[in-house]
Amino acid sequence: MSAFGGLIITNVGRALQAKAQLGAQLQFTRMGLGDGELGGSSIVDLTALKHEVKSLTLSRFELLTSGRARLGTVLSNQDIASGFYWRELGIFAEDPDLGEILYCYGNAGALAEYIPAGGGPDVIEKVITVIVLIGQASSVSAVLDQSLAWATQQDLAEQIAAANQYTDQQIGVVIQDLTTLQQTVAAHQADKASETTLGHIKIGAGGSIDQNGVYTPGRYKIINTSHNLEDTGNQVVTGVGFKPRCVVALSAMVGGSASVGVKGPVEGYELCIFSNYITPTDWNSESTLVRLSIDAANRATASLISYDTDGFTLSWSKTGTPSGPSYTRFLVFE
Questions:
Q1: DSSP-derived secondary structure for 281-302
Q2: How many CB atoms lie within 10 A of CB 182?
Q3: Radius of gyration, CA atoms only, the chain
Q4: Which of 46, 93, 128, 231 is the most buried (most CB within 10 A)?
Q5: Is the dihedral of CA 58, 59, 63, 64 positive or negative?
Q6: From residue 192, how far is each of 17, 121, 195, 216 by CA, in Å?
Q7: Which pLDDT value is given to residue 242?
Q8: Dist. CA 49–CA 179, nearest whole Å
Q9: Which helix (H) or strand (E) holds 171?
């Protein structure tokens, strides 16, 4: 890449900077590339490039500390008809009185880089980033072409760090939700039934309850499964050892919500209570067996569609683009 050794603010650039100190808008408009020789010209007196070859719209603008701003664009040789030595670099801005002016300028001289014409074997794409001085200007902006926006390594690092932080927070929320749920279930289990008090009873191996609520000794089985939330369609769960009549599902995922669902006879009603991904203590209900959400727009649900001779079949659907693994522990009754 051409070596410019820093850019120098022109006289018209300094005049615009002075206006900006008094409240005028300082708006950067574009970046110009050229192959002109500086010769005996003084940079501060320039009002244009010596020989401009390429005008580039800006794709990046960021205010920095110490009276500086970062500008960026993308150079491609695909629309360059004739190769040239990239010797000049100029930053243009809009003056409220003069129109567009050359704000600052640099010339690489003998250190210019050759940019070949497009259509040949050499394909050039360069991300150009420039730091410019803006002083104490209070209103600074840039005209950006969003179609040219490129993510830098720093941008990616910041986004990865933010995603990791969010994931860690959500894992903590899920763990807290499960802990709270376990405590709630434990307290609820303490309500035991007696001859005079409604409560819980233990169903031993070989028990079932018919549609009229009549208990008949039958069997139960605990089955652990996993499912990728991006997958839809049927999931067949086997290994139960009998044809179930009732299923309870305790489901959770990393970075999202948790749910508890129950299903009676196939023609009966499904009910699922699930935690709100935003407010962990906010629980809601829905007519399904499993409901797991990453956020308001991305979730996956599963309904039990059949009881089979050795298990049951779930039908998974999704809204948006949920992804990642989920884990469900099924308590299956005969």
A1: T-EEEESSSEEEEEETTEEEEE
A2: 11
A3: 33
A4: 93
A5: negative
A6: 79, 81, 10, 19
A7: 92
A8: 67
A9: helix 153-189
Residues 6+ apart with CB under 8 A from 144: 57, 58, 59, 60, 61
The per-residue pLDDT for 30 is 96
Query: In whole angstroms, what is the distance from residue 310 CA to residue 324 CA?
Result: 28
Query: Which token pair is 2?
Result: 């051409």
- The b/e string for 238-256 (b: 16+ C-beta within 10 A; e otherwise) is eebebebbbbbbbbbbebb
Give the H/E segment covering residue 163.
helix 153-189
How far is residue 91's CA from residue 198's CA, in Å, rounded to a whole number?
80
Pick from 267, 224, 251: nearest CA to 316:
251
Kindly provide the b/e burial profile for residues 127-160, where b requires at least 16 CB atoms within 10 angstroms of the residue's own CB. ebebebbbeebeebebebeeebeeeeeeeeeeee
Residue with the two structure tokens 């209103």: 139
CA atoms within 13 A on the CB side of 198: 0
Single-letter code of the amino acid located at 81: A
Going by C-alpha positions, the residue among 252, 278, 274, 251 that lies closest to residue 166 is 278
Digits of tens for pLDDT over the chain (334 positions)? 678 888 999 999 999 999 999 999 999 999 999 999 999 999 999 999 999 999 999 989 999 999 999 999 999 999 899 999 999 999 999 999 999 999 999 999 999 999 999 988 889 888 999 999 998 888 888 787 655 545 555 666 777 777 788 888 888 888 888 888 888 877 776 677 665 677 666 655 455 566 666 666 568 899 999 999 999 999 999 999 999 989 999 999 887 788 899 998 777 778 888 876 656 567 788 899 999 988 878 899 999 999 999 999 999 999 999 989 999 999 999 8
Question: Residue 115's pLDDT is what?
Answer: 94
CA 203 to centroid of chain Cα atoms: 46
Provide the residue count of the chain: 334
Mention every residue, 6+ apart, whose C-beta is less than 8 A from residue 280.
173, 176, 177, 180
